[in-house]
Specification:
The complex is a heterodimer of chains A (436) and B (238).
Chain A: H1 9-34, H2 46-50, H3 58-73, H4 75-79, H5 81-84, H6 91-103, H7 110-113, H8 121-134, H9 140-152, H10 160-178, E1 194-197, H11 200-204, H12 207-220, E2 224-225, H13 237-240, H14 243-259, E3 264-267, H15 271-285, E4 293-295, H16 296-306, E5 319-322, H17 326-329, H18 337-345, E6 348-350, H19 375-381, H20 383-392, E7 396-398, H21 402-414, E8 420-422, H22 424-431
Parallel strand pairs in A: 1-2, 1-3, 3-4, 5-6, 5-7, 7-8
Chain B: H1 16-53, H2 67-75, H3 85-88, H4 91-116, H5 126-148, H6 150-155, H7 158-178, H8 184-197, H9 205-222, H10 232-235
Helix pairs in contact in B: 1-8, 2-9, 4-5, 4-7, 4-8, 5-7, 7-8
Classes of the chains: A mainly alpha (436), B mainly alpha (238).
Chain lengths: 436, 238
């Protein structure tokens, strides 16, 4: 598939080379120099395990990026490129890289933590994306999501009025369901302690998740609001590799929260949203945030541990297992919070194997869900996750990520798992002792 | 006094005094070449480290953990077979790779001893020579594996084959020198070739292994991912 726009090859090379030089500084270059191509990472990659061809081997994929690095950043790469497999960045080599870094890797990082050397292959692949983004070679469907975020404030182009009306009817339903007369979703209210960022999919397709969060906030007596302009917790700029786009998406949401007078930003359950806002955002922007930022998982655990909400595990009787989103766990460090919560709100919680930092990607990471051209491979690569789930005998899979939830829904159909996929906050909401 | 570490005199058909003088002069030249190659390797590796660092990355996010804890973890627990699939799923390949690296390490130490103290009696006992032999066999296994395995072949470049052949050669030279088959000078000249090549090809992982592992561990430590506190049983769903 040719995605390139006709440009002067010399300009393409210079732009891409400059982007590469900036991207590898102080981190990526170490990992590119360290990889010895021992090949032992293959068994750690869900894409390779489900389709074991050389093109899917993590080291083969990484070598495509590293070969470009060597051409401009190593002595032998400059004087004897053939000896070290160094390649110039031509429109052709960059086109070839598109499928490698966007279509054959979710940048989940599992191969990296299992690497014999300790080379961060996931970051090498992200650098490949950064290089391609610099010369406008991001797959169009993925870039379209980024454009939505930049132009409308959210990835699904949901208008402010639609958000407000959705918040209104969810509030009414919630009042009836819980018996809490004053429970509601506050929109654009100033000087609340918390501004809550949500995934637009919660507004459009998964209102139960937003409703559950509202119920939990209400039960805890939290002072909170959402913005009708910039409420999107996702950031597809991280997937595309466009650092400037990612920075702008971060900036608009953080500044909106500050304008509303919030003391803290709480991030809805979203793997890449957490990673991009909590860890990458300040670096894209080149400055830290003036207010703290936490995951909803941290907040809910605090509510439970402090007694601000009372939960009854007998209200969730089905067996529940947990899928760890890579960006939240392996890249984000939110590992135990969701487990502590589930142990308290579920009667029968079991881990899948492997878990935590060793979890397998569901296959929907890295923006894969937005790139329909790689859909078949995405679903095939999810077979590992489907097998993990089946082995637990669980009826409910909790996952603190809407991207993962979308992929798991598809895996559920494809592999006939017979499961229900829920956000952690939905299980917490179910377990609230005080609601009717 | 020449010992097994410097077996030159017994191999030259000159009078003992002349032979000793000539071989000493020659050996001195080879020592200087070897020293230059080592300085070259160290300097070039450091220059490449500096270039790769490029002013470094400034971390603007607030920490959740300690970078130093992550670094320590990544050099200790994270390298255990129970925590790394590259070992647990490939135990034999890991052992073979380890044995080869032990042989390379012994050979490098032998070069350094020869440079620092050329007249020293052999400190490498026979069983280590046998270990070197095993390392050579392991090296050949890895070389052949790279040729015949489709996945490995598709990611390999000439440098991969050259690097492994050079290191196998170093170990063979070390054995040959140890058993008196070659002169110290020849061994040093061969070692010099390795040192000259080291910072250019994949052998530079002698430095970047440590830097990459430290940077990765530090980053994950800062984010609170490392150290992982749970037991293997818990992590495997037990």
């Amino acid at each position: 598939m040719k995605i390139t726009s006709p440009e002067n090859p010399a300009d393409v090379e210079k732009t891409a080379r400059d982007a590469l030089r900036r991207a590898v500084r102080g981190s990526g270059a170490y990992h590119m120099e360290a990889c010895v191509r021992c090949g032992l990472c293959a068994q750690s990659c869900h894409i390779y395990l489900t389709d074991p061809v050389p093109e899917n081997h993590p080291a083969v994929k990484a070598s495509k990026v590293v070969s470009l690095f060597r051409r401009y950043n190593t002595l032998l790469g400059m004087i004897a490129p053939g000896l070290v497999g160094a390649r110039r960045m031509t429109p052709e080599t960059l086109d070839e890289l598109v499928e490698v870094v966007y279509g054959r890797c979710t940048c989940c990082g599992r191969c990296g933590i299992n690497c014999s050397i300790g080379a961060d292959v996931g970051s090498i692949m992200r650098i490949g994306r950064t290089v391609l983004a610099s010369v406008e070679k991001v797959p169009p469907n993925l870039q379209a999501v980024v454009q939505n975020q930049l132009t409308t404030g959210n990835q699904m182009s949901i208008a402010s009025d639609e958000l407000k009306s959705t918040a209104e009817w969810i509030s009414q339903d919630l009042q009836m369901e819980t018996g809490f007369e004053d429970v509601r979703i506050p929109v654009d209210e100033k000087a609340k302690r918390v501004v809550y960022l949500i995934n637009p999919r919660e507004v459009k397709f998964f209102p139960l998740s937003l409703s559950a969060a509202a119920g939990v906030f209400h039960a805890a007596g939290e002072s909170w609001t959402i913005s009708s302009k910039f409420y999107d917790v996702t950031n597809y700029g991280m997937f595309s590799g466009h650092g400037n786009d990612a920075a702008e998406i971060t900036r608009q949401a953080v500044e909106e929260a500050i304008d509303l007078g919030a003391e803290e930003i709480v991030l809805s359950e979203c793997g890449h949203g957490f990673r991009s806002f909590r860890w990458e955002g300040p670096n894209w922007m080149g400055k830290g945030y003036p207010i703290p930022m936490r995951s909803m998982l941290d907040v809910m655990l605090e509510y439970i541990e402090s007694g601000r909400i009372k939960v009854d595990p007998s209200k969730n009787t089905e067996r529940v297992t947990l899928h760890d989103p890579c960006n939240l766990v392996r890249w984000g460090g939110v590992v135990e919070q969701q487990r502590e919560i589930l142990k308290r709100v579920c009667g029968d919680f079991v881990e899948m194997t492997p878990n935590r930092e060793q979890n397998f990607c569901c296959g929907g990471g890295g923006g894969m869900l937005s790139m329909s051209e790689y859909g078949e491979r995405r679903v095939l690569s999810g077979k590992i996750k489907a097998d993990q789930i089946s082995a637990t005998g669980a009826k409910i899979v909790a996952t603190p990520c809407h991207n993962c939830a979308d992929q798991l829904l598809e895996l559920n159909k494809k592999y006939k798992l017979g499961i229900e996929i829920m956000a952690v906050c939905e299980l917490v909401f179910n377990a609230l002792s005080d609601k009717k | 006094m020449p010992g097994r570490g410097t077996p030159e005199t017994g191999r030259l058909c000159l009078s003992p005094d002349i032979a000793h003088t000539k071989s000493s002069q020659l050996f001195e030249t080879e020592r200087i070449v070897a020293l230059i190659s080592i300085v070259w390797a160290i300097l070039l590796l450091l220059v490449q480290w500096y270039i790769a660092w490029g002013g470094g990355r400034i971390e603007f996010s607030a920490p959740s953990g300690r970078a130093i804890s992550g670094i320590i973890y990544n050099f200790t627990i994270a390298m255990l077979p129970s925590h790394k699939e590259s070992i647990s799923k490939h135990p034999m390949k890991f052992v073979i790779g380890l044995l080869m690296h032990i042989g390379v390490f012994i050979s490098i130490v032998k070069v350094l001893i020869l440079l620092i103290s050329p007249g020293t009696a052999p400190i490498i006992p026979n069983f280590i020579s046998i270990l070197l032999g095993i390392s050579v066999i392991c090296g050949f296994y890895l070389f052949v594996r790279r040729i015949i395995t489709v996945d490995l072949r598709s990611m390999s470049v000439p440098d991969d084959y050259i690097s492994i052949l050079l290191t196998i050669g170093l170990m063979i030279m070390a054995i040959a020198h140890e058993t008196g088959q070659i002169l110290s000078g020849a061994f040093l000249i061969y070692a010099s070739i390795i040192y000259f090549y080291m910072p250019l090809g994949k052998l530079k992982h002698v430095l970047f292994f440590f830097i990459a592992r430290a940077e990765y561990g530090g980053r994950l430590g800062y984010r609170g991912v490392y150290p992982v506190h749970n037991s293997v049983k818990e992590r495997s769903g037990g």
